[in-house]
Amino acid sequence: MPLLPHLEKEPENEREWFAALISMARYLRGPEGCPWDRQQKTRDFARFAIEEGQELHEAAEADDNDHIEEELGDCLFTLLACAAAAEEEGRLTLEGAMRRIHEKMVRRHGHVFGDEKAATPEEAVNAWNHVKAREKGR
Questions:
Q1: Are 23 and 46 within 8 A, CB to CB?
Q2: Which fold has domain 11-92?
Q3: CA dist 54 to 10, 63, 70, Å?
Q4: Over the stretch 75-90, which tens digit does the pLDDT of each residue have?
Q5: What whole-number distance in Å separates Cα of residue 91 and Cα of residue 41?
Q6: pLDDT band at 138 (very low <50, low <70, confident <90, very high)
Q7: Domain ranges, ordered by start, for the chain
């Protein structure tokens, strides 16, 4: 498999693969990258993410594990490309988006990381919805 010019070796674990993929998404938008990728905006990649998500859903419904893996990768890369475009447009940083979702997941899972209790899936959903409603001011 060909590597990006700045990679010395193939990634060996999830962390290295994630770093390689975000690096590739940014590289594709750069001067040595792809004219098509450079032309896409955040809104374009967001639309593509919906399409890729639908393809992932279809693969999951078909119980086709190889296809699920492929489509999950497509979804992930499309989201990273969206993040690279958004960073370039000055909308956000990927680090900031990851920090925000981490904080939100901890908050919304008070039944896991806090003092709330949820013994069933239904109680977990109710706890999640209670926190979400409180956050939204309802």
A1: no
A2: Helix Hairpins (1.10.287)
A3: 30, 14, 13
A4: 999 999 999 999 999 9
A5: 11
A6: low
A7: 11-92, 94-138
